[in-house]
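Subject: two folds for Thursday's group meeting

Dear M.,

Sorry for the delay on this. The cluster queue was jammed most of the week, so I only got both jobs back this morning. I'm pasting them in the order they finished. Each block is the input sequence followed by the predicted structure tokens. Could you check whether the formatting survives your parser before we put anything on slides? The first protein is the one we discussed after the seminar.
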Amino acid sequence: MLWLAAILNQWLIPYLFGNAPLGRGISAEQHMQQYEHLFSRTYKFLPPIDNHPIPDAQHVTLATLSLITLIIVTVAFIKEGKAAVRAPRPRRRGMHLGYSRGVRNGRILRGVGT
């Protein structure tokens, strides 16, 4: 979840709104200069918005996969939580005497497991 938040802060916010990522302490112009220097030769498939930095394919893929993973884990967690609330605890029959075979409903069966 932190990874997804970092990707969104570094790429999606500057792409949509044109400002520098939060917490960097630099202006949008300085951010664009750094961006051009570091990512000028990477593959980009999103359309440009004014003079905003465009996320490259690697970061778009990472953000998409991270979001899909977060959704799957959240759905599984919710389903597991509901199943745990509904499911009764299994009863352990015949284990009070220490036998795993030859005991049914608390009675020892003759001729089994001897």
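Second protein, same layout:
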Amino acid sequence: MTDNATATLSDYSTMSISEIAMEVRKNWKKVSPHAQPYLDAMFSLNKISDNYYADTGSSVVAYFLSNATSFTGEAARAIKKELNKRLQNVYLKNKI
């Protein structure tokens, strides 16, 4: 992994959901048709707490992740880790 790749992978925590969606699009050449609608919706989200029409941002991200099993590689792992971390934070916040 190059220094540039390391810097990019560590920057996901500062990105909006729409910026992460751009990274997914850049790194996933043939997006699963099952994940595509959720990826498209993510382009409309700034934060995971935003809504996409009647859906919560957290549900959009959760459904994207559940349909993104064919998104693989180093960037995919880092992106999924960040999205899962944000989902976990939402669920912990709502549990309290």
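Two things I noticed about the second structure. DSSP finds five helices and two strands in the chain. The chain has a mean pLDDT of 90.

Cheers,
T.
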